[in-house]
Fold each of these.
Amino acid sequence: MNTKARFPRRARLLKPAEYSRVFKKPVRSSDPLFTILASPGQSVDPRLGLAISKKNAKRAVDRNRIKRIIRESFRLHQQSLPVTDFVVMAKPVTKSRPNAELFKSLEQHWSRLLKLCKKYS
């Protein structure tokens, strides 16, 4: 098992203050499925926060599927990402899209954010 591709507790945004810091002055990447906010990290690893609202995905099973896909995509790309805090928000159409489309969208976001985040690192 590749221990570098895990999703440990230190790779997550946990406190409201950590989310607030990302929401204050973010670098944005947006498409019809997701909006990802990024802010320079205060940790040694890139970290992920999720903001999947009930307004956009009413059923818990839909929200959980979206969160699972986001976590997996982040886990697979975290080695190439800069030390940055990310908050991923899903849009209403996300719940009805197939998993492959969600993964493709997230992959484009990670590569776009990699370029944008290099400017401030």
Amino acid sequence: MKFLRFQDKNGRVGSGILDGESVVEIEGSFFNDYRETPRKHPLGEVRILPPCLPSKIVAVGLNYRDHAEELKKEIPEEPLLFLKPSTAVIGYGDSIIYPSHMSSRVDYEGELAVVIKKEARFVKESEALNYVLGYTCINDVTARDLQVKDVQYTRAKGFDTFAPIGPVIETEISPEDLEISTFLNGERKQHSRTSSLIFSVPKLISFISHVMTLLPGDIIATGTPSGIGPMKVGDTVEVRIEGIGVLKNQVAHREAR
């Protein structure tokens, strides 16, 4: 099942289920109880919003061996965690704003995102997938020059618009072996499978839940494969994950103030 959030032509925000080229509107929350309504919206007549509103995005660094190698980093013994703020979240078709006032290199990082279904604290690895609603795409946009300069990742990863997610939350796939690719202006730059993750999805959920409480709607960004590279204003970037779909965004100038 593919859950999504949308805004109709009258500006009303709703939640629904993608059914071919239509969105079946639901009442209630897809995190607990909901019911389908008779209301259907043609997909072309709605704006797709971020499929959830996380309180936090817990991201994992160096979780593909080839990515660690391209950065000349050692393979981590434990998951390397950092946070992206909720204010970084945008949806399908929204613009990634290039922070040229601070950065001169902004990179794409296509990743599988895990969407948490219910409160998770001290979760056993064997039970971890019971806490998952589903999976979506995320682009862990990174100001690479600031990441090197600052050492820690907060500024480089935390600019507004630096966490595109979507377009849907797919609930009926396994995260074990999904094809993942990132395209820049139609050219494939990243390509791997989630079977190449150093730390699996259940391991990540369990590990993170022993550090912090995960809440419904929170996202775990599982790491990016090799092939990272810069984007410039006017570029189009797409993250494509098997079974989920395509997350597409353009890079734009910061508005003058």
